Amino acid sequence: MARSPRLSGAALKNLARFARTRIGGIALQRILRADLGIDKLEGLGDEHRSDVPLDTRPHAGRPPRAHASQELPWPTAGWAPSATTLTAAYKSGKLSPREVVVQALAEARRLGALTPSVGPILDYADDAALAEAADSEERWREGKPLGPLDGVPWAVKEQTAVRGMPRKGGTSFLDAAGQLRDGTSVARVRAAGAITLGTTPMTEFGMTPSGANSKRVMPRNPHGLDRLAGGSSTGSGVAVATGLVPFALGADGGGSIRIPASLNGVFGIKPTWGRVSRSGDISGGTVAHVGPLACSTVDLAYALEAMSGLDGNDPQTFAAPAREKGAFVAALGRGVRGMVIGVPEGEWADATEPVQRAGRAALAALEKEGAKLVPIDLELAKYASAIGVVVIACEARAALRKEWRDHADDMGDDLQVSFAALDAFTAVEYLETCRLRTGLRREMAHAFEEIDLVAMPSTVAAAAKVSDKDMRTGFLDTKVIEGLCRFMFMGNLTGLPASSAPVGCDAQGMPVGLQLVGDAWDEATVLAATAHLERIGVAVPRRPRVTASILG
Predict the structure, then answer these.
(1) Catalytic amino acids?
(2) Which domains can be identified in the chain, with CATH numbers?
(3) What region, left, alpha or beta, does residue 170 occupy, with left being phi > 0 and alpha being psi -120 to 50 degrees?
């Protein structure tokens, strides 16, 4: 099917002006409906629909798995310094947290000064980071570290509150005053001793998965400077991929953790809905999750352990079942023997050859290690992206009513086009789409009655090329959007946990990812399989062309 061409610069600006007229908004929505598959939803039969969702709780197929652990050794860290690497150096006295933080801040600024930029930090927390490094150094000197993240640098997506730092959400007009307190996820990781270097740039309000934002100097992909880094957690993905930090905070409403993880060749996990508190995050609605990206599955598990748990400031966390402390880290040694992995062939058929080749090779390796691969049929999965676009877009448009009313002229031209087109959706259409969402949740719960994981590509293809003009003015490209989100929204619409692991690259050396989706509240099984891929050398973050050196 022919799609609309990529637009940027003057052409995009003129389109934004047209879109903000009544006739233009309706015309643009018709085009977007066709390009993103939304017009196909109306033709789905009543058997695919159920009641309008009454809550956002994830529907489990069965209780979390209790597979016997093979007690395997943890995966060995790759080329980039991990939390384990750093804390071992602190313990031995070879390095101090202050030395690492000073070097990391300098390296972040060096990356930002490159042309084109690969700078993953937007606003720097120099004074606070150095003070926290001094405190950590004292704890290590006394032999009383707070845990495996003490003294480890990390970074936070600019939509989550960091004490004393702006929370600008990718915009040019949100209040730039320092936040009075940390968001819950940040406070918990800080309490574990990690040191916040600063906040990372994102796409505007997280509304595009590309990694371009005309309101920011956005980092390019460190594996190829003419390629997109993905979004909306763009800076967090680049911060990890370059080796600047072992892990970073992201947020995922339609793949915004897993897309940059895949395109930059690192690990990322969107937890179960309600596993990690959104208190202090600007995310609203029913699909946005908070979670980590990391250079290894060990760092991923450490981060998820630190930030997850019941939070009285976020009622969505109340449904999370009790779990044993350290369960995510313990799962890393479980292995995959006896694990049943569902493979939806209809989904795989839509990926490009390099993505299929790398992903299927990874699955074959898991099968050789004792997992069982079974074909499954998910009828609604191919419509998940279209359903997700309607849900997240309509919810965002309603939540940002005041911003659209008062600051439309301050928004990027691509976002203006999107928001103007959204005005043509009706309430009935949104609710009808929500009924399809319930059907998808039911379908996935039924599938998990017999399987432990669903394996899909992370994205249709590796990172797309981008020009300097595209990055400077922003751009609209529905083919890129669909290719990035095609396999992502299923996890957001169902609230199920999903990871992306780097399992190969295309002919140009650009990373591709494998996505593993687990049953509700069963991040442990997702982490177990992802860790085993890393353990056997299948999921390996490749050293990019542009790196940071934080070890001095």
Answers:
(1) 157, 232, 256
(2) 7-40+80-535 (3.90.1300.10)
(3) left
